[in-house]
């Protein structure tokens, strides 16, 4: 690490790689500092599956069309208007061109997967998943001359005279001080720091699982915020989904998510329902269930389905708990059999006759039931019965660095002259709350490319 670089990119996931490749292609020297070991490189990107993309007509693996207006409307629905509209539209309008750029840099796509998350029109799936995308980008970055250091956690970025002056990094037992012309921060959120999560959420956060990388601890984010970089987003807002309660504390990834909620009843530890399981199609609602479970006693929930629904969603990584009766299922799951059967009986009585359509809103709803189930409401009455436990799985936090349309980080005195940010560390500018499937990759790709382009321009002055 004795070499002087034009640009230091902090982080090793999608946004960091997009920034590094773009800058290297502009003819400047670039180094990536990835805190994870090589085998775990890529941050949360290695757990992803798809990229949300606008298009006016069928395009490669994407079917039909998905207009810029519809994309924006979908985002507004899940964020309930809590977004920087200018930045959101910037991301959306650049996704179609980014699709081709991704292919040119090694990414291969495949048609949409079947199951609850059927997204053939809106999302392009990565062949081989996020890890293949990450590996392709690293190959391309290396071919472009980007230097890469693994096991290289950055402990701080020093701001002086409204500029990033030094980057402090530990590598192979030594501390190094780098003095690049500019810095791109793409090192994710703070979700793996459970103490920080607890400060934001309270004691309930101790029961959360971190479905993404254990290396996103917010060290650089905190360093910059402490020095006056402007923050954006709410520390209690995050991409949090309901995952299998048997998942590991860290790094379980996307396979730990359960997609059976729309075809179930979900109860808390007292056997009581607490939310509408059929509120909307799953890609627009799966990311609210982490917060819903977090608000329940002991931060736990339980999914109950029957034999009619067991094959309607993508298979789970852990097999469901199975029983021939609801009473037996309750006992196996540690629930009160009387309470659970009473809840299910009440739900079944509220179900109405109608046509069931598992892949679209079917209006098959309950009547005179609180909370209601507004779609896919069928009686849970066909043995065997199946159950899963649910816990809150945090993917990434929304507190981050405030940026402008050039991805430049904002400070107390305006933009910080040579500091850019991309990916999860600035996504709170666009995601005030809620989440839209595949949109994190859209933000990281578009803003990674912008950050790389703008940093390279600055470095070449």
UniProtKB/TrEMBL annotation:
A GO MF label: oxidoreductase activity
UniProt keyword terms in alphabetical order: FAD, Flavoprotein, Oxidoreductase
The protein's name in its UniProt record: Fumarate reductase flavoprotein subunit
UniProt keyword Nucleotide-binding present: no
Name of the encoding gene: fccA
SUPFAM superfamilies hit by this protein: FAD/NAD(P)-binding domain, Succinate dehydrogenase/fumarate reductase flavoprotein, catalytic domain
Keyword set includes Cell inner membrane: no
Cofactor: FAD
Species annotation: Grimontia celer
EC identifiers of the protein: 1.3.5.4
């Amino acid at each position: 690490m004795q070499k002087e670089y034009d640009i230091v990119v902090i982080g090793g996931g999608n946004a960091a790689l997009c920034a590094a490749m773009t800058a290297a292609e502009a003819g400047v020297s670039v180094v990536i500092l990835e805190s994870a070991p090589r085998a775990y490189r890529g941050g949360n990107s290695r757990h992803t599956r798809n990229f949300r993309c606008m298009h006016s007509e069928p395009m490669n693996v994407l079917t039909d069309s998905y207009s810029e207006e519809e994309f924006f409307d979908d985002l507004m629905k899940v964020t309930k208007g809590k977004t920087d509209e200018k930045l959101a539209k910037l991301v959306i309008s650049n996704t179609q061109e980014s699709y081709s750029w991704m292919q040119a840099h090694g990414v291969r796509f495949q048609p949409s997967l079947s199951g609850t998350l059927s997204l053939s029109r809106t999302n392009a799936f990565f062949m081989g998943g996020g890890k293949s995308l990450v590996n392709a980008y690293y190959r391309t970055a290396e071919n472009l001359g980007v230097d890469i250091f693994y096991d290289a956690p950055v402990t701080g970025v020093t701001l002086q005279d409204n500029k990033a002056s030094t980057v402090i990094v530990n590598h192979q037992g030594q501390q190094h001080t780098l003095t690049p012309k500019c810095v791109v921060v793409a090192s994710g959120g703070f979700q793996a720091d459970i103490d920080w999560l607890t400060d934001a959420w309270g004691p309930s956060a101790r029961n959360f699982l971190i479905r993404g990388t254990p290396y996103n601890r917010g060290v650089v984010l905190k360093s910059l915020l402490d020095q006056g970089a402007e923050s954006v987003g709410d520390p209690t807002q995050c991409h949090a989904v309901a995952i299998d309660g048997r998942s590991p504390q860290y790094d379980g990834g996307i396979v730990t998510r359960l997609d059976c909620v729309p075809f179930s009843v979900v109860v808390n530890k007292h056997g009581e329902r607490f939310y509408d399981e059929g509120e909307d199609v799953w890609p627009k609602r799966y990311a609210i269930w982490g917060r819903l479970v977090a608000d329940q006693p002991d931060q736990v929930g339980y999914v109950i389905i029957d034999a009619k629904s067991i094959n309607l969603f993508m298979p789970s990584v852990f097999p469901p708990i199975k029983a021939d009766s609801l009473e037996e299922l309750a006992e196996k799951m540690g629930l009160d059999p009387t309470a659970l059967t009473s809840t299910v009986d009440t739900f079944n009585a509220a179900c109405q006759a109608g046509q069931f359509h598992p892949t679209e809103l079917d209006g098959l709803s309950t009547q005179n039931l609180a909370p209601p189930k507004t779609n896919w409401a069928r009686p849970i009455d066909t043995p065997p019965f199946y159950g899963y436990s649910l816990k809150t799985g945090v993917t990434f936090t929304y507190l981050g660095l405030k940026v402008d349309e050039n991805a430049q980080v904002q400070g107390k005195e305006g933009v910080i002259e040579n500091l850019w940010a991309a990916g999860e560390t600035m996504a709170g500018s666009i995601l005030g709350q809620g989440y839209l499937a595949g949109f994190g990759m859209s933000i990281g790709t578009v803003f990674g490319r912008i950050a790389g382009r703008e940093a390279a321009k600055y470095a070449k002055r």
